Amino acid sequence: xxxxxxxxxxxxxxxxxxxxxxxxxxxxxxxxxxxxxxxxxxxxxxxxxxxxxxxxxxxxxxxxxxxxxxxxxxxxxxxxxxxxxxxxxxxxxxxxxxxxxxxxxxxxxxxxxxxxxxxxxxxxxxxxxxxxxxxxxxxxxxxxxxxxxxxxxxxxxxxxxxxxxxxxxxxxxxxxxxxxxxxxxxxxxxxxxxxxxxxxxxxxx
Length: 205
Ligand code: MD6
Ligand code: FE
What we know:
- The protein is of the alpha+beta class.
- The protein is 14% helix and 32% strand.
- The protein has helices at residues 23-39, 90-100; strands at residues 14-17, 56-60, 64-68, 71-75, 108-114, 120-123, 135-141, 144-149, 157-161, 166-169, 177-183, 196-202.
- A hairpin with a 7-residue loop joins strand 8 (144-149) and strand 9.
- The protein is globular.
- Bound molecules: N-[(3-hydroxypyridin-2-yl)carbonyl]glycine (MD6) and fe (iii) ion.
């Protein structure tokens, strides 16, 4: 795995590569994500308890993460269109290769869209079959306040994730509790109309 930029997080296994994607890569990736979203439109999922997410979601790859009243799971079809998710953008596959050095490519990419007051509560990513593979996260657009703390609970800290930043939950931090407190409006001009995209690459099975 490529050596990440220095950041004292106090959380072993949390990796952070600020500015891993330069402006040109960000623009390229955004175009690839837009093409995918044209095939698999954003939708607003519900929690198993029936509450709507404030974040809009879609997926790329053989499998996509979905949430509805029956629970959380990975599935091969978009819940609204009934069609397979589009392929993971090539730039993301290259990034996974470069930063994780893993032989096996990701088989799922969750795409989150934050607009206005959208946020994401503290959670753990534990719906994947193999919890030893990392989750790699790419941020585009407005800066987010990313909160992260140990799996077992206790003190959390906030890391600002700006456009082009990449982070990963690996090893002892794979089950870290994390969420997005809020995004900071007008901190990026990448997305027309503002907002933030987050792409998380996973090995779901
Ligand atoms: C977000 N990120 O940045 C939400 N999950 O919008 C996540 O939930 C996440 O950043 C697993 C690994 C890294 C992450
Ligand atoms: Fe997560």
